[in-house]
Amino acid sequence: MRVEFLFWEGCPSHPRALAELRTAMVDVALDPGTVILRKVPTQAEAAQERFVGSPTIRIDGVDVQPPGEEPFGLTCRVYHRRDGRISPTPDPADVREALRAAQTALPRGA
Amino acid sequence: MTAIGDRAPTFVLPDTEGVMHEPGGAPATVVVFTCNHCPYALAWHERIVGVAQDYTGRGVRVLAVNPNDSERYPGDSPQAMRARVERGEFDCVPYLRDESQDVARSYGAKTTPDVFVLDASGALRYRGAPDADYDGPAQNAAFLRGALDAVLDARDPDPLETPPVGCSIKWKA
């Protein structure tokens, strides 16, 4: 499984989001050391990466919260928690669910 | 850059209907730099509006100022600001446009949100975050409420200043 964590250093959300991602990985018996950290430093790279804001977490290329029509760019990303609150970080329950879904989708032995 | 105790810069800015507003004329005025697209500003928004609603009876004014470059960040356009006001998201809070970014620059604002509390004389009495945790609604803008209570009671706020937390202001190139 490929877990990518894309972030822009201009937004302060990423340390907390990364810590929560690593906790979620432990919760589903994945090695948190395998997360791939990727900085997105420029607007051009944001467009190239289809990066709609920091942080963005992709599991096997799939965003943990599909971004819809959000424009690409260097900004803090808006997430919606399960209780309806707006947050700079994804709901840990959504991250765990996305990890479990990817585990289920893996072919046997992968 | 305005320091605690300094006279805060005066300004006149339009709200989403073109009505001009300036700080002052109140026992305390809150100037909060905010925007539409930042999750920190959005997470704290209801708490700040709650302060405006709760303190309006004591004469406190809360002015929200959006200074972001709306060319690079269209979510902060005047049209998008007006849409939020029309949805009723700014009860008791005029939502002002700082198109030149001069007001944000003169205050030394760094993030959205970034909160400044002025006393009746226009002196800056508190600057920083609304409370200690954007993710904790129960915090209920405690720093801001505490600062207002202090100013209204002629005391010094405690704390006087906290680090502003949020998205960087999107300055024009």
Topology (SSEs and partners):
The complex is a heterodimer of chains A (110) and B (173).
Chain A: E1 3-7, H1 14-27, E2 36-39, H2 43-49, E3 56-59, E4 62-63, E5 79-80, E6 86-87, H3 92-105
Helix pairs in contact in A: 1-3
Chain B: E1 13-14, E2 20-21, E3 28-33, H1 39-55, E4 61-66, H2 78-86, E5 95-97, H3 102-107, E6 111-112, E7 114-119, E8 124-128, H4 142-152, E9 167-168
Parallel strand pairs in B: 3-4, 4-5
Antiparallel strand pairs in B: 1-2, 3-7, 6-9, 7-8
Structure commentary:
- The complex is a heterodimer of chains A (110) and B (173).
- Chain A is α+β, with helices and mostly antiparallel strands.
- Chain A has one domain (3-105).
- Chain A contains three helices and six strands, in the order βαβαββββα.
- In chain A, the strands form two sheets. In chain A, strands 2-1-3-4 form a four-stranded mixed sheet, covered by helices on one side. Chain A has a two-stranded antiparallel sheet with strand order 5-6.
- In chain A, strand 5 (79-80) and strand 6 (86-87) form a beta hairpin.
- In chain A, helix 1 (14-27) packs across helix 3 (92-105).
- The model of chain A has no long low-confidence stretch (mean pLDDT 93).
- Chain B has a single domain, classed as Glutaredoxin (3-Layer(aba) Sandwich), CATH 3.40.30.
- The longest helix of chain B has 17 residues, at 39-55.
- The interface between A and B is medium-sized, with 16 and 17 residues.
